[in-house]
Amino acid sequence: MKKRGIRGSLIAAAAASLLVLTSCGGGDEAPTDTEQDAGQGNGELTQISVGVIPIVDVAPIYLGVQEGIFEEHGLDVELTLAQGGAAIIPAIQSGDFDFGFSNMTSLVIAKSQGLPLQLVAPGPQTTGEPGNDFSSLLVPEDSEAESIVDLEGQRVAVNTLNNINDTVLKEGMRQEGGDRDSMELVEVAFPDMGAQLESGNVDAIMAVEPFATLAKSAGAREIYSPYAEPIEDLMIAGYFTNTDKIENDPELVDSFITAMKESQQFAEDNPEAAKEILSEYTEIEPEVVEQLIMPRFPQEINRESTERIIELSEETGLITEPVDINELIYEGS
After folding, report:
1. How many domains does the chain have?
2. pTM, whole model, 2 decimals?
3. pLDDT over 70 (residue 2)
4. 149 plus 83 within the same structural domain
5. CA 276, CA 214: separation in Å to the nearest integer?
6. Which of 294, 297, 296 is nearest to 272 (CA)?
7. What are the CA-CA distances from residue 86 to residues 104, 105, 123, 194 (Å)?
8. pLDDT at 36
9. Same domain, residue pair 242 and 194
C-alpha cells in the first residue's frame, strides 16, 4: 500500500505542551457535494474532515491514513484534535467536520436531545481485564482509598462532564454498594490530570492511555478499572456523522465506514504499529509508549453494550427522552 504523510497543524483549542495537534490530508475547505461526486466518479480523492481526540482510542484512523486504507477507498482525510467527544458533536452539526469521534454516552445524550446524528463505525472496546485495561481510576500513592467505594464524597477528575466516564464511574460505585451520586465529578483535561492529582486539587482521576501510564509512572495507584469492570465488553466510543450527510451522500458514508473498519482491524492485528503511530499526534517518550495498554479495536458496533449505556443514561438522569438504538446506529445503505 502507498503510505501517506501526516502533516502537523497546531490548533488553539489545546495548549498543553504534551500534545502535538495534527492534521492529515487535504485543505481547509470542505468539498461541495458536486466535488465529492466528481471525486468518487473519476478516481480523484474526496476530502473529508474528521474530529478526533489525542488518546490511544483513535490510533486506527491515523494508521488507516498512513497505510493508505482511506486513500484506497477514495478519501483524503484531514484529522483535527479536540479535548473530548462532547466538543466534537456541535462541530459535526455546524459542518466543521464531516465525521467525528465521540464516547457513547455523549452520543446518546445528543440523540435524546433530538440532534440529527448517527453512529456509523466502532471505536475502541475494553480489554475486559481488570487491572490490565486502557482506562484507570487512579489515586495518589499515599491515598487511603483502596476501592471505588472509598471515593464516596470525593472529587474525581474526568476529561469532560456528562460523558461515558460519568456512566461507568456511577455504575461501578453502585455495583460495589456505594452511593453513585456521592462523587463530585470535576472536569479536567487529560494532560492536566496528573498535576491536579499531585497537587491535591482532586482525590482521584479517571485517565485513559497514554495519560494513565504517565500518571502511574509519577506514582499514582490504580484502584478500579472503570471500562473493564462495570459493563461487559464495553464499546467506549465510535465514529458518527450528521444524518444529512447520510441522506445526501450515502456512498461517501459507506466508503468511510469500510475504510474505518479496515483500519480498526489493521490496528487490532498490528498492536505495535498502533503504538508507534501515537508519535504522530502526541509527544510521548518511547519508553512510555512501550508500557501502554492498548484497547481492542473491533470492526462491528457492539449493540449490547450500547443498549446498556442507553439504560444507564436514563437511570442516572443524563437523558429524559428515550433513545431508540435503531435510530442511533446507522446500518449502512
Report:
1. 2
2. 0.84
3. no
4. no
5. 17
6. 294
7. 10, 9, 15, 22
8. 43
9. no
- Pick the closest to residue 99 from 292, 241, 272 (CA basis): 241
Give domain status of residue 5, yes or no. no
Q: Identify the CA nearest to 92 among candidates 116, 61, 125.
A: 116
Q: Provide the residue range defining the domain that includes 139.
A: 135-224
Cβ–Cβ < 8 Å for 30, 65: no
Q: Is the dihedral of CA 289, 295, 297, 301 positive or negative?
A: negative
- Higher-confidence position of 282 and 104: 104
Q: Is the CA virtual torsion 221, 227, 233, 236 positive or negative? A: negative
Q: Are 97 and 299 in contact (CB under 8 A)?
A: no
Q: Which three cell numbers stand for residue 78?
A: 484531514
Alpha carbon distance 140, 223 (integer Å): 10
- The whole-angstrom separation of Cα 292 and Cα 70 is 26
User: Which residue matches cell numbers 474525581?
Assistant: 156
Residue type, 219: G
Asked whether the CA dihedral 197, 161, 163, 54 is positive or negative, the reply is negative
| 3-state SS, one letter per residue, for the chain | CCCCCCCECCCCCCCCCCECCECCCCCCCCCCHHHHHHHHHHCCCEEEEEEECCCHHHHHHHHHHHCCHHHHCCEEEEEEECCCHHHHHHHHHHCCCCEEEEEHHHHHHHHHCCCCEEEEEECCECCCCCCCCCEEEEECCCCCCCCHHHHCCCEEEECCCCCHHHHHHHHHHHHCCCCCCCCEEEECCHHHHHHHHHHCCCCEEEEECCHHHHHHHCCCEEEECCCCCCCCCCECEEEEEEHHHHHHCHHHHHHHHHHHHHHHHHHHHCHHHHHHHHHHCECCCHHHHCCCCCCECCCCCCHHHHHHHHHHHHHCCCCCCCCCHHHHECCCC
Q: What is the CATH number of the domain that holds 209?
A: 3.40.190.10
Answer yes or no: is pLDDT of 6 > 50: no
Cell 466516564 sits on residue: 165
**Which residue has 504534551 as its cell numbers?**
18
Q: Residues for the chain: how many in total?
A: 333
